[in-house]
């Protein structure tokens, strides 16, 4: 299925130039209900910020509902309680309840998995200003089928006495315009949990090809102690770097996302300088698919997953 041309510059996979031979149905619907919004920074009233991503994983999914803080206040958004939240398709409906310890965070009462090829609608009913008036906010997302991830591999190289471990994906890219999100985990810990770490890419260079592409470089664990760090807080600097030790498991999730969500990620990263949309709203000129003047995004995707275990080669 062809998609509407994206007008933003993509965030490339790591070292995209290393290979061009190796790697989100209803995008017209997403495009039709997606529009740029502008929040003025001078004394503008607060707006509702809604952020949610549903996936093909069977789990309790989440919806974050908050009210934006003043633009120049360095405080998080205020979670909105007592909302009625639901997600539904033509075949099923799922209710959400607010977490006891996280105001404004709503989790589905029953676990569910979003089905590829299905459209879902999010509905949030909430009294935004505590004036007794309930306002309704809605958004829609398709779940686009994802290519089968054939395998994930690690290739180790050594240069000037330093090892590097390069993560490659192997998959057949389907015909038509697609937008990808890659989720990375090491030993079940997410490496891409924050917006600043999201890896996205459109298929300009590899449409309808078999892809073998490097997507991440890991440092060798032996460099941990002696790695040169110029920042004063070396522990924080090291934590941002990605190391592999013998026996570590790397998991990669390949996802096809709607074009609107692809644009939201790129624009939010630029505006928020890496802020996480789960706990803060986009400041200005960020695409949204939330109706009734709300901001944020409701998106969904199916997941194709692969794992690889790093085994250090022992010298004879």
Oligomeric nature of the chains: single chain
Structural class: mainly beta
Helix share bin: under 10%
Low-confidence stretches: 1-42
What is the CATH-assigned architecture of the largest domain?
Sandwich
- Count of DSSP-assigned helices: 3
**CATH structural fold name of the largest domain:** Immunoglobulin-like
Characterize the largest beta sheet: strand count, sense, and whether it forms a barrel: 9 strands, mixed
Number of strands: 20
Which whole number gives the mean pLDDT?
80
Instruction: Tell me, briefly, the overall form.
Output: globular
Rg (CA only): 21 Å
Topology of helices and strands:
Blueprint (H helix, E strand, L loop, with lengths): L26 H6 L2 E3 L10 E8 L6 E6 L10 E2 L4 E5 L4 E6 L6 E4 L10 E8 L8 E8 L6 E11 L2 E11 L6 E8 L2 E2 L8 E4 L7 E11 L13 H7 L2 E2 L4 E8 L2 H14 L13 E3 L6 E7 L1 E7 L7
Description:
It is built from three helices and 20 strands. The protein has 316 residues and is mainly beta. It folds into two domains: 16-24 and 145-256 and 304-309, Immunoglobulin-like (Sandwich), CATH 2.60.40; 27-144 and 280-302, Immunoglobulin-like. The strands form four sheets. Strands 2, 3, 4, 5, 6, 7, 8, 9 and 19 form a nine-stranded mixed sheet that branches. Strands 12, 13, 14, 17 and 20 form a five-stranded antiparallel sheet that branches. A four-stranded mixed sheet has the order 10-11-15-16, with no helix packed on it. A hairpin with a 2-residue loop joins strand 12 and strand 13. The radius of gyration is 21 Å and the shape is globular. The N and C termini lie far apart (53 Å). The relative contact order is 0.24. The model is unreliable at 1-42 (pLDDT under 50).
């Amino acid at each position: 299925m062809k998609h509407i041309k994206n007008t933003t510059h993509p965030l490339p996979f790591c070292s995209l130039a290393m290979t061009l031979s190796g790697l989100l149905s209803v995008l017209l619907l997403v495009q039709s209900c997606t529009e740029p919004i502008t929040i003025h920074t001078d004394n503008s009233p607060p707006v509702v910020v809604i952020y949610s991503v549903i996936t093909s994983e069977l789990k309790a999914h989440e919806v974050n509902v908050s009210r934006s803080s003043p633009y120049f206040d360095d405080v998080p958004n205020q979670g909105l309680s007592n909302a009625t939240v639901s997600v539904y398709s033509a075949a099923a409906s799922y209710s959400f309840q607010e977490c006891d310890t996280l105001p404004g965070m709503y989790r589905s009462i029953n676990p569910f998995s979003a089905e590829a090829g299905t459209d879902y609608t999010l509905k949030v009913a909430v009294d935004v200003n505590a004036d007794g008036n309930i306002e309704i906010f809605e958004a829609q997302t398709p779940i686009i089928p994802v290519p089968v991830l054939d395998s994930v591999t690690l290739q180790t190289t050594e240069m000037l006495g330093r090892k590097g471990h390069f993560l490659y994906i192997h998959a057949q890219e389907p015909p038509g315009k697609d937008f990808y999100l890659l989720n990375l985990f090491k030993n079940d810990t997410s490496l891409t949990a924050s917006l600043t770490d999201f890896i996205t890419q459109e298929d300009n260079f590899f449409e309808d090809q078999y892809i073998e592409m490097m997507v991440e470089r890991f440092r060798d664990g032996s460099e941990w102690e002696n790695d040169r760090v110029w920042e004063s807080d070396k522990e924080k600097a090291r934590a941002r770097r990605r190391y592999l030790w013998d026996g570590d498991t790397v998991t990669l999730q390949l996802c096809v996302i709607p074009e609107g969500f692809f644009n939201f990620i790129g624009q939010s990263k630029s505006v928020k300088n890496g802020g996480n949309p789960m706990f803060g709203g986009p400041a200005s000129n960020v695409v949204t698919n939330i109706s009734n003047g709300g901001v944020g995004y409701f998106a969904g995707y199916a997941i194709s997953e692969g794992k690889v275990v790093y085994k250090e080669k022992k010298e004879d």
